[in-house]
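Box 3.1. Reading complex inputs
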Amino acid sequence: MGSYFVQIMQGFNVTLSVFVITLVLSLPLGVVVAIIRLSKICVFEKIAELYIWILRGTPLLLQIIFIYFGLPLIGIKFDRLNAVYFAFVFNYAAYFGEIFRSGIQSIERGQTEAANILGFTPFQINTKIILPQVIKRTLPAIGNEVITLVKDTSLVYIVGASEILKMAKGIANRDATLVPYIVVGVIYLVLTYVITKLFDKIERKVQYDE
Amino acid sequence: MNNNHILLKTEGLYKKFGENVVLNNINFELKEGEVVSLVGKSGAGKTTILRCITGLEKPSGGNIIVDDKYVSKFDEKTNTVVNASKNELHEIRKSLGMVFQNYHLFPHMTVLQNVTLALTEVYKMSKEDAKEKAIDMLKSLGLGDKTDSKPFSLSGGQKQRVAIARSCVTNPKLLCFDEPTAALDTALISDIIKIIRDFAKKGMGILIISHDERFVRDVSDRILLMKDGQIVEEMTPSDFSEKIRS
């Protein structure tokens, strides 16, 4: 079982890099999506809506296949991991964008008005007054997405990248045993456990009663 | 101090939302040290006046002058209202304070942070000076022991006093109140009357919107009765007293 673990963990680099790169890029991109979606400029708003509809309305697996296998047919080629990063980042930015949008809209207008009269600049209002409240309100929903992301990294198998589930499947086929599946399942559970605890901690830190 | 300095003046203030006229030819003044109340039924346009004065709403016509600066000015040549630019409004708002009906305290900050934030961010005061000033202000309003509390844990009356401290710590010349007694019981109403009168004694101009007749009678120097977007009557507290009794 120990040797299975070591073999499976050879795929951990890929799993981890998809997870980290997606998170680091899609969170700020999600803020941008939310801001465009909330902009009062109709064209931008519609574009953001269309973007969110397409990216949330089709399977992530299809998006990966489209970018890696589809786009080369019209001459746009990515190497396999870049294709995966692209699909994941744009897909997750759509979800995060909607979470941030709902968070921003949930802050009552009076907060901004009170701050305006106190003389704060729009930048100060957004960073000191709105953002901390949006983070607090959206954190549970973001935590959900992050846990989904851990499990979604397994979709990378479709482009032939060797992440942990693909490694486990290879070993299981080779040795005719189901143990690797159990091992890889435990690895996912440990990862999601750590993330759950981490989010609990952050939530407690930003917690205040309303 | 020159007690006749006019802090607020509206001239022919006019506002419509779509085709619906909510303010029609509003003319009044407010001087230093004066407490003026606007009374009238809901929908008479009281809140819209406050929102226009504080720059939250753009008037459709007329002039608003706060502390000798135009918040908005009607240009007869072009027949349009010219509103203060962002920078001008920023300056004008340094003379203005506003205590909202729902207070709108910042829920993620302590009472002290609520009061110091404008001092450190807008007035660039040092953290220590801001803290000292805020604590003095909170103590004078009987909130000396609440500095580290979050707004959630306060009673309605305490929240209101934090909102007053937050507005007054920057020494505005004109302080506006939107329905200040809406959430207060009788004992707290006499406290707020005392607080407002004390501010007025120091020269602050106070504009109050309320439909609480007894409160208005006890706190005001002058009372303006509004009906359907117009000021229909100006009264002294004793006139008003007669009127509400009859």
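In summary: The helical segments of chain B are 46-53, 86-93, 111-121, 127-140, 156-168, 186-201, 213-219, 237-245.
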